[in-house]
């Protein structure tokens, strides 16, 4: 049977497709513009989006298992719930859903609240699902690379509690492993939740120190005030989204993203290798 991948084909989605193909899975991807798609040979590319019900229904034909990743948009909740309803209508009850770390606690952050609602639907509607709850993506640092390299400041207000930043490649590989496990199981498996974290819990000062070491010159931490972060984000994204990013940053400062006991060991066992660390990305971005 086919595994349907729904979601932006960026940091995580593309890696998920590649990991599935490497495991000899039959893969279909739903995308708005197949002409721009550049997936491995053999991937079935379907045109459509989550608010086009006809194309969504067509994409589910012959599918047993779903990977669902919703982009942060103003209608994210509608998209998530519609996708799960159409999946259920099509008889698909095996799902890997990309949520977010502490989705049920940080309910004032819109996209955290959305994902908490989708998690509740998965449980209430009796899906067999793996809910992945990743922390802050290390890959996001590409957005602030120029500030770090040109101004010697690490600008993300992640605070002093610590954030266990995770590499998108690790998220995607865990997702693929779980998709294959559920797809090939003789029957629907119970719901499981996996915190997908990185190997280190880093503060803002810790990250600045890593960059200082990688670059061989001082890099300062910009501080814990998310208001400046909101203003910077608003220069290249909608104001509502910049405000949402501020709310998320406030959670980093107040609570951090700190793994539970056994989270890292579970991931390393699942992957059969160590997790990618922050320094690896810093070295790559510094040399790009």
TrEMBL record:
Domain NmrA-like: residue ranges: 2-250
Gene3D superfamilies: NAD(P)-binding Rossmann-like Domain, UDP-galactose 4-epimerase, domain 1
InterPro entries named in the record: Ergot_Alk_Oxidoreductase, NAD(P)-bd_dom_sf, NmrA-like
TM regions (residue ranges): none
PANTHER family (alphabetical): PRESTALK A DIFFERENTIATION PROTEIN A, PTHR43162
Protein name, as recorded: Uncharacterized protein YbjT (DUF2867 family)
